[in-house]
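Researcher: I need the complex structure. Ligand is flavin-adenine dinucleotide. Inputs:
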Amino acid sequence: MKLVNNTLATLLPLIPKVFVKRFAMRYVAGETVEEALSVVNRLNEAGYAVTLDILGEHTKSHDSAYQVRDAYFDLYNAIHNRGADCNISLKLTHLGLGFDDDLAENNFSQLLNKAISLNNFLRIDMENSPYTDRTINLYNKYRDETDCIGLVIQSYLLRSADDIDNLSGNRFNVRICKGIYREPEEIAYQAPEEIRQNFISLAQKVIESGGYVGIATHDLFIIDTLETWILNKKISGNRYEFQVLYGVPMAGRLEKLLDAGHKVRIYVPVGEEWYPYSIRRLQENPHLAGYIIKNFFRKK
Ligand SMILES: Cc1cc2nc3c(=O)[nH]c(=O)nc-3n(C[C@H](O)[C@H](O)[C@H](O)COP(=O)(O)OP(=O)(O)OC[C@H]3O[C@@H](n4cnc5c(N)ncnc54)[C@H](O)[C@@H]3O)c2cc1C
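Model: Output:
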């Protein structure tokens, strides 16, 4: 299967866009703010909190970085005007990190101020390892000013337990995920079981040290294990939430989490950049290419 996935991922740019779109649109709310807000509304009505993310990364000009910042301003306003239960998560390279780090920070701080002024929240997605330190440093610089900011830590990175020790405390708000990029074995666990066990212990560590954790996974073993641990330890519902990506089939598990009183948040990407985003994601992680095959054959 690994060979099939790798081959498929390499061939993806040759696959007609219409087929990739069929895959991508399961996971993307649409291209416009209106489409996104209509998905948010539907999910809110079903009991889910939502995170919106405008697709895109590695912005390569000042104008584009300002456009991305302004698109997020508009999104915050639209969320506020609708009274939606929805926050925002973004990638720093989308705001210009890697192209002009000062520009990215400037854009970021303006957006954080916007989130604060609307009593909303801004989480910084974690990108691949060249950006880990810069992302953590930026989070650290602003975290003492406000509770409206959050970070992401990836359980495949060997450094993550130390990062959490260094970052932990009352105001630490972190999403734990496995990590979607391909990272070398010098810095990252490669074995799925190690990544999984590290995920569980990182999430527990955050809660035990007084932080708030977003448990971001579709891995039912992790969800079951952490739910049981949370119940046994009588962890208060304001210390954690479960998070999943929009469109990933969860076989009724999300409804069960809601019924049991847990907070569940759906991460919903939106925007015109769905094609390059999907292609890059699939090439970076050929494992996901296997889902294309499944989705082609799954009845809607
Ligand atoms: C809310 C959220 C935010 C995230 N933010 C980041 C981030 O900031 N940085 C980062 O590096 N990564 C991020 N990720 C991605 C994450 O790191 C993983 O790559 C991704 O979630 C797959 O890992 P998993 O924990 O679901 O486990 P897996 O073992 O990969 O998946 C468990 C099961 O879920 C199903 N599944 C998983 N993904 C899909 C899919 N796309 N389509 C269909 N079925 C699927 C499969 O059936 C699979 O067997 C995020 C994930 C989530 C849920």
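Model: Summary of the prediction. The chain has a mean pLDDT of 91.
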